[in-house]
Design goal:
By secondary structure, this protein is mostly helical. The protein has seven helices and no strands.
């Protein structure tokens, strides 16, 4: 029943099916790939246009910093600080980032024993509440080249709450 010719036919059938599968995969890639390679900019096959929603981003910009800062809640800022705890401390010791006790109105790049990148000089002379407000929105956007890898706090209210909390931690 199972002689050499039957086994050879079965193995040949499996190999042939696998070869057809590989050729089909190759043909599909040729037909449906937009182009480019790894690390290059790829052109989209089609673009779906969407309308810009007049959401919260416009209303946040309409309110000035002083008005927002006047309504800041330090208790909520303490909760927001939870995102900062991975790299910053409030006890005067440095971690991955410099300590943040007394950061409000402190000179930029001034914590002893911490090796800064030098990129923060673009922000200003001191960590004023306004400078912190803009920096915390997008650290890499405000100070390109900074060592800080945090993406930022997009909500303006979160930023002013955090600044109010840090201001209480004076030191």
């Amino acid at each position: 029943m199972l002689d050499t010719m039957t086994v050879t036919k079965a193995v040949g059938g499996v190999c042939g099916a696998f070869l057809i599968y590989l050729l089909g995969n190759w043909a599909g890639e040729l037909l449906f790939t937009v182009g480019g390679g790894h690390g290059e900019e790829h052109a989209a096959a089609y673009v779906i246009e969407v309308e810009e929603s007049g959401g919260d981003s416009g209303s946040e910009e309409a309110v000035d910093f002083e008005t927002l800062f006047a309504s800041a809640d330090a208790a909520k800022g303490e909760k927001v600080f939870g995102k900062c705890k991975a790299c910053h401390k409030l006890d005067g010791s440095n971690a991955t980032g410099p300590h943040l006790d007394g950061v409000v109105d402190r000179a930029i790049d001034s914590v002893d024993g911490f090796a800064y990148s030098g990129a923060l000089e673009q922000v200003g002379e001191t960590w004023s509440p306004e400078n912190l407000f803009h920096f915390l929105e997008s650290p890499k956007g405000v100070a390109p080249g900074t060592k800080m890898t945090f993406a930022g706090l997009p909500k303006a209210q979160d930023r002013v709450d955090l600044i109010a909390y840090l201001q209480q931690q004076g030191g």
